[in-house]
Amino acid sequence: MNKEELALWKSKYTDISSDIYIRPMEEADVDKWVAWRNSDLVKGYYIYRGEFTRQSQLDWMKANVDTGKACLMIICLMEDDRPIGCVQIKDIDRFHNKGEYGIFIGEADAQGKGYGNAAAKMMLRYGFEELSLHRIYLEAIEGNERAIKSYENAGFVKEGILKDNAFIDGTYKNIVWMGAINPKENS
Fold it and tell me: What pTM was estimated for this model as a whole?
């Protein structure tokens, strides 16, 4: 991404109060993404706990991001442009105008500072304004109250509990189903 493109992203998708911005993920970010996603810090919050490789992520990006089935962003600090995590909308369904939201903060020193909440708000805005989605939904493991509260603060609403919906670490877990509807379509 050149300086002009980065300046445009910063002008549109920055949260001043938390000093972060989001920008599209590039191939240069893949190794960091793989390290984050495979770390115990991040993996424990995900339903899927398998290992990722550089090649599997590049293949996924080619099949999904390059075809418009997903949008993958890197969360960066304003002060030094340091990447600290990732936010995405995947499984974009153009017939029903919906997609599945996901996020992680990969840097330990960046967790618990409100960056995830700020990134969620920006990604919802991006999904509704730029992608013209009607609905953005997510799944969270029941008991991950910090994440669920952050999602609620960003605009997601709990819609239900999927009982024993995921088999994680030898135990069936309930999944909290949450969603957000494009506010401009409800006014």
Answer: 0.92
